[in-house]
Design goal:
The chain has 333 residues and is of the alpha/beta class. The protein has 2 domains: 176 residues, Rossmann fold (3-Layer(aba) Sandwich); 143 residues, N-(1-d-carboxylethyl)-l-norvaline Dehydrogenase, domain 2, CATH 1.10.1040. Helix 7 links the parallel strand 7 and strand 8. The longest helix is centred in the middle third of the chain and has 23 residues. The radius of gyration is 19 Å and the shape is globular. It starts with a strand and ends in an 11-residue tail after the last helix. The model has no long low-confidence stretch (mean pLDDT 97). The structure holds nicotinamide-adenine-dinucleotide and SN-glycerol-3-phosphate. SN-glycerol-3-phosphate (G3P) binds next to helix 8, helix 10 and helix 11. This is Glycerol-3-phosphate dehydrogenase [NAD(P)+].
């Protein structure tokens, strides 16, 4: 079947390869003419994962209408700030039962909405939507290095439809009904990865990283439960799995961004140097909307936000976190 993929960054490119290798025709929407030209003539994305030869069944286009023509499903893989625009553009073209899966990891600024809620607001008929998330670095998935992911939807039929579409020997797909939990885990682990990057950048050790990962999981669980998600999701691929993959991997943009912050660099420096998105930069600010709304204590996110957006010294991260009042390991979950 034809599948439309919206967004030709690293993850959109890798997921297009998975789908094409599964026998689907992929219409990949990209915003730069030189990217479209190179994918269609040389079967390479010149900006992201450029050393990988793409399946010729990945056909790029600059036009939403072209990518959606005869498509049976859409995959949104833009940075999270662009999900609303993508959903709005899709709503103009597709039928009201057209299945859409969103693979972006973030929370909308101001509203605190998750990507699936944005699709619902722009397109309606929520049961046709799913989200995909897990410990999935594009650099590995595109090469078929074994990995697993979670596909969550409030409709088991929609989850099963996308599971069938994506699953293959090297990319195992599980289903879940907890889209809220999966999306909150996805957004939150990026914040913790920035903290871990800062920690390593400051010369702290593996014990410190494990402290941040574990306490980050406690924070994530409090947030997920308060927002109506399932605590068990935090123990799965989208929670613990992605937390570990992102915090420990040198592929991670969020961890790299944290290391750059420790070296005195800024978000602008990261963006100019990599042309990539470190979603945790916005997420550390946007989780505060939810934390305030539901009364959740998120000390690691607060510390990261103060460094990224308020010019705090990264060294204050350690001081702020270790000088908090002593308490039981688990509270508020
Ligand atoms: N890279 C991964 O390994 C990975 C894995 C899982 C999920 N994700 C998530 O997927 C989403 C997309 O990330 P990515 O890694 O593919 O992106 P990327 O960092 O590789 O590339 C940035 C993307 O943003 C696009 N872009 C930037 N500014 C734009 C604008 N003004 N208008 C339209 N497009 C614009 C670029 O064209 C490019 O597609 C993010 O939410 C990310 O967290 C990424
Ligand atoms: O490179 P990062 O930090 O954006 O992480 C990529 C994926 O989310 C890992 O699952």
């Amino acid at each position: 079947m034809k599948v439309s993929v919206i967004g030709a960054g690293s993850w959109g490119t890798a997921l297009s390869q998975v789908l094409a290798n599964n026998g689907h025709n992929v219409g990949l929407w990209a915003r730069k003419p030189e990217v479209v030209k190179a994918i269609n003539s040389e079967h390479r994305n010149p900006r992201y994962l450029s050393d990988v030869e793409l399946n010729p069944d990945v056909v790029a286009t600059l036009s939403y209408r072209d990518t959606l023509l005869r498509a049976r499903a859409a995959v949104i893989v833009t940075p999270s700030t662009l999900v609303r625009g993508a959903a709005r553009a899709l709503a103009d073209v597709v039928d009201s039962d057209f299945p859409v899966i969103v693979c972006s990891k973030g929370i909308e600024e101001g509203s605190g909405l998750l990507p699936i809620d944005i699709l619902d607001a722009e397109m309606g008929n929520r049961s046709r939507f799913a989200v995909l998330s897990g410990p999935n670095h594009a650099e590995e998935v595109v090469r078929g290095v074994p990995a697993a992911t979670v596909i969550a939807s409030e409709s088991p039929d929609t989850a099963a439809f996308f599971q069938e579409l994506f699953a293959c020997e090297s990319f195992r797909a599980y289903t879940s009904e907890d889209a809220c939990g999966v999306e909150l885990c996805a957004a939150f682990k990026n914040v913790v990865a920035i903290a871990v990057g800062m920690s390593y950048g400051l010369g702290f050790g593996d014990n410190t990283a494990a402290l941040l990962v574990s306490r980050g999981l406690a924070e994530m669980s409090r947030l997920v439960v308060a927002c109506g998600g399932n605590a068990i999701t935090c123990m799965g691929l989208a929670g613990t799995g992605d937390m570990v993959a992102t915090c420990m991997s040198h592929h991670s943009r969020n961890r790299t961004f944290g290391e750059m912050l420790a070296a005195g660099k800024t978000l602008d420096d990261f963006t100019v140097e990599t042309h990539m998105v470190a979603e945790g930069a916005n997420a550390c600010r946007n989780v505060k909307v939810l934390a305030d709304r539901y009364g959740v204590d998120l000390p690691i996110a607060d510390a990261v936000r103060s460094v990224v957006w308020e010019g705090a010294d990264p060294k204050s991260l350690a001081r702020d976190l270790t000088s908090r009042s002593l308490k039981p390991e688990f509270y508020g979950i």
